[in-house]
Amino acid sequence: MSTEQSTAPRTLAEDLRARDDEALSGLLRARPDLLSPVPNDLTQLATRAGTRASVVRALERLDRFTLQTAEAMAVGPDGCDLGVLGALMPDVEAPAVEAAVERLRERALVWGSDERLRLVRTARDMLAPSTGAPSPTGLGPTVAEATSGTSPGRMQELLADAGLPATHDPVSAVASLTALFSDAERMDVLLASAPRGTTEVLGKLTWGPPYGETPDAGRHVRAADAVTPVQWLLARGLLLPSGPGNVVLPREAGLYLRGGRAHRHHEPVPPSVEPVERDPQAVDAAAAGQAFTAVRTVEELLKRWDTGGPAVLRAGGLSVRDLKRTAAALDLSEQTAAFWLEVAFGAGLLASDGDVDEEWAPTPAYDEWRQHPTERRWEQLAAAWLTATRVPGLVGTKDSKGRVLAALGPDLDRSLAAEVRRRLLALLAGLPEGGAAGRDQLLARLRWDRPLRDGADGLREQIMDWTLLEAELLGVTGRGALSSHGRALLSGGHPAPLLAPLLPQPLDHVLLQADLTAVAPGPLVTHLAETLAVAADVESKGGATVFRFTPESVRRALDAGRSASDLHAFLAEHSRTPVPQPLTYLIDDVARKHGRLRVGAASAYLRCDDDALLAELLADRRSSGLGLRRLAPTVLAAQAPPDVLLERLRSMGCAPAAESADGDVLIARADAHRTPPRSAPVPVPEGPPVPDAVLLGAAVKAIRAGDRASTATRRPAVPAPADGGLPRSAAAETLAAMQAAVMVGETVWIGYVNADGAASQRVIAPVRVEGGFVTAYDHTTDEVRTFALHRVTGVAELADEPA
Amino acid sequence: MNDGPLIVQSDKTLLLEVEHPKADECRRAIAPFAELERAPEHIHTYRVTPLGLWNARAAGHDAEQVVDALVTFSRYPVPHALLVDVAETMSRYGRLQLLKHPVHGLVLTSSDRPVLEEVLRSRKIIPLVGARVDPDTVVVHPSERGQIKQFLLKLGWPAEDHAGYVDGEAHPIELDETGWALRPYQRQAVEGFWHGGSGVVVLPCGAGKTLVGAGAMATAKATTLILVTNTVSARQWKHELVRRTSLTEDEVGEYSGTRKEIRPVTIATYQVMTTKRKGVYPHLELFDSRDWGLIIYDEVHLLPAPVFKFTADLQARRRLGLTATLVREDGRETDVFSLIGPKRFDAPWKEIESQGYIAPADCVEVRVNLTDHERLTYATAEPEEKYRYCSTTATKQHVCEAIVRMHTGEQTLVIGQYIDQLDELGDHLGAPVIKGDTSNPQREKLFEAFRQGEISVLVVSKVANFSIDLPEAAVAIQVSGTFGSRQEEAQRLGRVLRPKADGRAARFYSVVARDTVDQDFAAHRQRFLAEQGYAYRIVDADELLASD
Question: Where is pLDDT greater, at A595 or B409?
C-alpha cells in the first residue's frame, strides 16, 4: 500500500465519506431514489448507489454531453486521469470535460481524484462495449475480451503475423497485441503494408457497429494465405472472430482509427433555442382569450352532465360514442374534447359516481369551483394540468394489446409527461418575454437535455407536440410564447391576479336584430346568459355569442315559466337597440298559441280540499294582486303566474305546493347529480419525488450519524466463524456482503452447497452480482464461475487479506 | 383587448358591429376575403371560407394582409389556430400554376415540388396530364384545362390560371352612352373582371347587370355568346344591347327553342343548350360554331350542371358570370369558382341602395287567419296537398285583392305559383295573367302595356321570376311560391327594386296563411332577405285592412 493510496479514497464509500454535507445533499437531490428508505450509513448509501436499478436511473437523467463523458470513461482505462479522458474527447475544451466529470461526481457515478477517476463499476459494465451488447460509442470489446476464447497457439500465430515477437503465455500475448494496436506510429507502419480495400473495410466498422459478417470468421487465416483485405485483417488480429460468421473490430484498433475519439461528434454545448419574438402584450392577450375559452368550455362540458352523465365503461373510461357525442355537442374535435374531459378529471371536477350503474358526473368540488371567479378557476385547471401524468393525446390510440385507450380510462398515465411538460415550459420561460420557439429546436434541446431510448424518445416527441398544443389551448402560452400568467404558474406563483385584468368583462346587454338573432358582443353576465340560453338557440360561439330566436326556443322559454310580457320586458331591458318588430311578433304569436294550449286566461290555479281556506284567501287583501277567481268550491284560478302565486302565498304564511297536470306535486328543480366526495387522481411520476431541503438535511444527518457508528467500531460486517465450520449469514446479509465485496474488489470466504447437496468452503473474489447469481473468481479452483446466491450458506471476511 | 368593431368567432364567422366608428374601414379590409353572409341592421356576419381566401389571393391579397386585418380590427384576441389556418389555406393557392409554355403548350408548373408530386399521384389527375417536362412542370392536355382546375380545387390545391385567353373573332362593339352612363360600380365591375381575365360579378337584382355585360363586351370587342335563363330574358338582353351599344338588330342573334340564329353576338337560353336528344346535346355545337371571344353567363347561380360540363372545355375563352348571389341551393359554388372564375366584384345590396341606384323596399308579411272551415280542411289534407291548399285558400285571395285595392293607381304585380289561383285572381281583379302558356309576343305586349302604364295590375306566374324588366312596378304581392326557395324570394323582390322616377319606396307583400306550412316556408324564404338587411314587418291581415 503506497502513501498515495492512503490519501486517495479506495472505495466509493470512502469518497462519499470525504464529501461535505452540501455535496451529499446534492447527491440525494439528484438521485432521490437513494433516500427510500434512508440508508443507515455511507457504506450502505454507496452500495445502493452502485445497484443496477439506481445507476440506470441516474444515467438516464444525464444530459447528452455528460453521458458522452461517462461513455468515454467506460471505454477508457479504469482509473484514468483527466488527461486520458481529454484525449478520448479531443474536440472538447478541457473545462467542459472537467465540468461534466464534476456533474458525474455529484451524482456518485464517478469517484476518486482527478488523477484517478473511477466510474462506478455498474455504470462501467453498462456503458462499456461487451461481447454481447454494443456500446453507444460504437466501439467493440478490447483485445483481451475479444480473444478470451482463443487458443494460445492461435494467439502466437496472430503475434507472428502482426510482426511481433512470440511470448510465453497468452496473457503477455494479449498485452503485446494491445500495445501494438494502441501505438499509433506502429499501426501507421502496419497498415501502410495492407492491401487495397483494407481501409474501406475498416472504414465501415470504425464508427460502429464494430461487427461485420464474413464467412472467414471461423478460419485461422495466416498472413501468407490471406488474399482478401478481410483475411489480411483477420490474420493480424485487427479483426477478431466474435461468433459464427461474425467478426469484430477490437476497441484499441477502433480508437486508433478514430484518432482516439470515443464518439464521432461530441456535443458539449446544448443546441440553442432561438426565440421568435412576439409582442408580449399580444401573447398575453391571446393566452388570456384562450384561458377564458378553456374555463368556459370545461363549464359547458360539465353543465351538460349536470343531471348525470354517460355511463362508465366496465373497463373504466368513456365510450367512444359518448366521446363523439360530447365532441359534437361542443363543436370540437374528439381529440380536443378528450383533452378538456381529462383537464376536468385531473382537476377533480369530474369523477365516476360509484353507483351500481356507474356514471360520470361532476364532483362536489365542481360546485365549489364554479363559485370562484374565472381567473381562479383557470388557475385550478392549469395547475392540475401542469403536474398531471395522464396524457389525453393517447386517447383513441391503441395499447400494446390492441385495445383502444378510452378518454378518462385507465392506462393513460405516462410518467414522462409531467417532466416533459415542465422542461418544455421551462425552456420557453428561459426565452425573453414574448419569445416563442420552433418545435424542432425545442425537441433538439429536450433530446440533448435527456437522451432517451428510441421508444421513449418517440413518446416524448409526441408528448411534446401535445404539450405545445395543450398549452396553447389552455392559454398557458399564446402564439407559442409563454404568457405572463403561464410564467407565474410555472414558477409556482399565483397566476390569477395577472390573468384577471386580461379577461373580458361580462356584459349585461345584447343586440337584437330583425333576422331574429341576438348578438352578445362578449361574455354575458350569468343570469342573462342563462335566460338567453333558454329563450334562443346558440348559433355561433367565440368572442361573441350569436343567439337565434325560433318559435321552438320561444316556446321553450314559455314552458320554463316565462310569460310573453316577461320576455318582452327582459328583451327591452337588455337590448341596446329597439326590439325589432318581427321578434316582438314572434313572441306574441308563440305565446298566443301557448295560451291556447292551456285553455282560458288563468295562468295558475289553486286547489284545496278546504274551501274555507280558499274563501279566506279570496278575502285576504294581500292576495288582491293575484287576480284570484273561484272556479269551483275547491278550485281558484289566478291571473298571476304560478311562480308569483307561490311566492305570494308563501309570504302570506301558507305552504303551497306546485302541482303538475295529473296532480302530482311538482318539484321545482331536480337535485343536481353529484358523486360522493372524490379526490383528484394523483399523478404517478416516475420514481420518488424530489426531496425538499428539510428532508435532505435530516437524511444527511442520519446517514452521517449511522456512518460514524459503523466506522468507529470497524468490525467486519459478518464475523468470521471461529470453529472453521461453514460460514453462516442471513440471505440479506449475504447479498449485501457480496455486493460490498464487488464494490471494493475484496476476496471473501463462503460456504456453498452444490446441486448434489455437498457442502464446501470456498474463497472467491466476486465480480458481479446479478439476478440471484454471483460471478466470481474462485481461488479454490482457479477459475471464474457463477454461484447461485441461494446456495451460498454464508459469507465471511477472510482473517487476513490475501496477498 | 382593444376596441375594434370585429369579433372573430370560433366557427370562422366574423361579426362586424355596424355602428362602430371603424366599421367602414373594417368592412373594406375584410371584404376581399370574407363573404358577407348576413347583413341585418346592427351586426353583419361575414364568413371566412377557403374559397373566399382564394378569391382574395386571386385578387392579389396575401395572408399577411388578411391576418393583419383580423388582428387590427378584432375586439378580442384572434385564436391563433385560426390565423395559422388562414395563412396555411392561402398559401395553397398559386403553388400550382397553369401556364402557356412556348414549346409544350399548356403546362402545370409548381413552385413547390412535393405539391406537384402529391397531385400527380391522384387518380383523378393522372388521365389529364401528359409528359413530365422537367421536375417542376408537366404537360396538361389543352382540352382538360377546366377539368384539372376542378379536381385540383377538390384536392385543396387550386391552380392559378395564367395560360391566357384566345382573343376570338374581333367584332367592333362600342357603348353608346347618350343620355346615360355606366354607374361607377358598374365600371369598377367591368374593370375588375377584365383585369382578372375571367370571373364572377355579384350585383343585386336591379343594379344593372346587363350593362356590366355590355361594358365587358365593349372592352373585349369580340364576338360574344350570352347564356341566359329563358327566352323573355334573351329578348330583354337583345333589347338592351341594341339600345345601349353600337350593335344593330341584325348583329344580335337569338338561339332559343323558337329561333336558331347565330350572329356575332348570340344569346342562347340554358334550356336549349341542355336539351338532350337520344343521349346527346344537339345544340352543343353552338359553342364551337364561332370563335367566341367572350362568354357571358347570366344568373350564374342557376347554371345547370350540363353547362358546367361544356364550360370546362371553354377555358381558353374569357368568361363573365353575373349573379345576385353566390349561394347555390345545390352547393356547387366550387365549380363556379374553378370553371367560371373567382369573384371579381361584389357590392352589397344596401350599399347600392344607399347610393340611390336601387329603390328602398318595405317588406311586409301579411298573416292571414284561415276560417274554421279552411283550417279543418287543411288539417285533414294529404301531406303533399297541404302547401297547395293553404297557399291558395279563399281567405288569402280576399286579402290579396284587398291589398291591390289599397294600392290602386300604383303599378302592382301579383306573383304566384299556382295557375288556377292566378287565373281566379286575374278574374277578380280584372287583370291580365301571364303564365307558362302565354305566347312570347303576348307576354311582350302585356309587359310593354304595363311599362307604359296602360294596365296597372299584372298577375304573373313563376315564368316572370327572372330577368324581366318592369321598371315602374312599385308594389309586388306574393301569394304563393316554390316552397322555401330563398333565391326565388330575392328575385321577386328584385322586381320592385328598380329605382322609381319619384324616389318612392317599393312595397313587397307576402301573404301567408297563419299556422300552416305556408308560414314555415315563408320564414325560410325571408331569411335571405332579412340577412341582406331587408327586415320584414309582420302584420295581421285584419290590422292591415282595418288601418286603411
Answer: B409
What CA–CA distances, in Å, run from B334 to B54, B91, B153, B321?
Answer: 11, 18, 8, 14
Judged by DSSP in three states, B227 sits in strand
What does the block give as the cell for B267? 344569346
Kindly state the cell numbers that stand for A745: 474488489
For A441-445, what is the mean pLDDT? 91
- Residues B257-286 pLDDT 10s: 888 888 899 998 888 888 888 877 777 777
Domain assignments of chain B as residue spans, ordered by start: 6-92, 96-161, 184-353, 359-547
Is A478 in Cβ contact with B77 (below 8 Å)?
Answer: yes
Strands B343-346 and B433-434: unpaired
Q: Quick check: A436 and A286 in contact, CB under 8 A?
A: no
Q: What is the ipTM of this complex?
A: 0.76
Closest residue in chain A to residue B540, using alpha carbons only: A585
Output the DSSP codes for A38-101.
Answer: PPSSHHHHHHHHTSHHHHHHHHHTS-HHHHHHHHHHHHS-TTB-HHHHHHHSTTS-HHHHHHHH
Percent of chain B residues topping a pLDDT of 70: 93
Cβ contacts (< 8 Å) between A288 and chain B: which residues?
Answer: 77
Q: Where are the domains of chain A?
A: 3-127, 143-257, 276-502, 511-598, 717-797
Average pLDDT for B499-526: 81
Question: Which homologous superfamily is B184-353 in?
Answer: P-loop containing nucleotide triphosphate hydrolases (3.40.50.300)
Q: Is residue A514 within 8 angstroms of chain B, CB to CB?
A: yes
Question: For residue A240, what are the β-bridge partners?
Answer: A248
| Domain A3-127 CATH (choose: 1.10.287, 1.20.930, 1.10.3470, 1.10.10) | 1.10.10
Q: At what angle do helices A693-713 and A21-30 cross, to 10 degrees?
A: 120
A743 contacts chain B (CB < 8 A): no
Contact assessment for residue A222 and residue A156, using Cβ atoms and an 8 Å cutoff: no
Grid cell, residue A634, equals 275547491
Q: What is the mean pLDDT of residues A501-506?
A: 82
> Hey, what amino acid is at B99?
L
Which residue is closest to A586 within chain B, CA to CA? B538
Task: Report the CATH number of the A717-797 domain.
Answer: 2.30.30
Pick the CATH number of B359-547 from 1.10.10.10, 3.40.50.300, 3.40.250.10, 3.40.630.40: 3.40.50.300
